[in-house]
Amino acid sequence: MKNSLFGIIFLEPDRLTLRIVELPTLKIITEVQSGALIVGSHNVANYAQNMQAIVDNLQGFQRILREYQVEKFAFYGSLEDLNMVEARYIADQLKVRTDLNIEWLSNNQLMASALAAVMAQMPRFNELSKKALYILTIGLNTTRLSYFRHGKFQTSWDIDLGEARVNHLAQTLRQTTTTPSEIILDYISSKLEYLVPELRHVKNSNLLIHNVGTMAQSYVKPDEMLGKVPREDFEKRYQRIVSSSNQFIINHYNVDEQSVNWVLPNYLVISRTIHLLDAQRIYATSLRILDGLTIMQLGDRSLVANMIRTSAANMAQRYGADTAHSTFVTRVALQLFDALQPIHRLDRHDRLLLEIACKIEDIGNFINPQGHYRHSQYILEANPLIGLSADDNRTIAEVARYHSSESPDVAQAHYRHMDDDIQMPVAKLAAILRVADSLDDSRLQKISRVELRLQDERLLITAHANDDLVLEKWAFQRKNQLFTDVYGLKPELIAKEGE
């Protein structure tokens, strides 16, 4: 039995959960939750102050894993609003006290994996998303609204409306006003207002409420994942919650003394979102972010990879990137990556990062062609892609920065101060991208086919072209030094023109 079970431990700011699943069915064998962890008032993530409770629960989870003879498990933590320096401190303390290694996940990673679980596991997903499906995922610090059509992810928006954040505002307002709900509604509306132009064209949409326990409890039957929410019934419940005491909500919605504070913010956000979308049909799901982690660890990871690709394509379109050029560069860069596998020793995830960098390397032209590579970098840093970690997004941004005039060099302060974990991947991926980009310097896609061959200490690149490659040859010589420095290979371009 031990070989067919897998454990997942998930640390969130308000609780710690252990789930043991059967392989390969992903059937849940057991799930255990800690008591409520105290959420911070300034930062939601309050792990340092909860350290002893976290350690005690982790030690209990370790005993349960041994009882079930589970040898393989993963330990994930939600970063929420925790910065990476503090996260490293917390990780080190947990390692010392429990000998467990935690993998921190960004909101972008958690949301993407949660959406993947909805796509993979929720009944009627393809039917509901055939025309227009919005998924509202409410977290402690932020909320995400995602849009699906024809069964595929289209786009998503981050909204500063987490349940703990809204509750903190409510607590503050209660000290100065007797009607905080009305002010909070205005606050929520102001956070949603920027979406109005993007949502105006969508009619007759479905809305799925995700990761909200009280909604699942009220509308999803036991042992099911999906339940319909009659709009009139929701409005009655909403009015009741707005006017009820915390004790009433605790008694009727099976929440603890801390989580009761999330119920009103959830209903306020949901109500305003329904109004904004004018959703024709509303559903709730019992699927949670933990289900996404199960899919991420054990399920179909291509679902998340495709969301990342779609987000990159959306960004490229938004900033007017040259699609023909990026398609050419992507094809050649991935061909180079595959040919150099024994040398660079990077994995398939790095290949995906290179693919994404190729698609959005030139978005900085939207601001100014002069120094566009630097503009590309800070656009990417300001718009992290769904499904990627902070390091992944930083890697893509840095590769985009170094694809053109600048090269990562030890003498360059910017590169020198880059985190050690991403320095080499950035250099290796940027070196490949620079070579691929140089082969279409004219932006005319003159080269129809590329052949690669390693010979001694040279990489021979045979380019079959339908026109002269004078500009490409010049750009190739100008950009290939980084490739030689990183890989110890001299790239040589062999042009076969007129083909």
TrEMBL record:
The organism's superkingdom is given as: Bacteria
Q: Which Gene3D superfamilies does the record match to this protein?
A: 3.30.420.40, Exopolyphosphatase. Domain 2, Hypothetical protein af1432
In its UniProt record, a GO molecular function of this protein is:
pyrophosphatase activity
Name all Ppx/GppA phosphatase C-terminal domain ranges.
Answer: 310-458
Q: Which family does it belong to?
A: Belongs to the GppA/Ppx family.
Q: What is this protein called?
A: Exopolyphosphatase
The opening ranks of the lineage are:
Bacteria, Bacillati, Bacillota, Bacilli, Lactobacillales
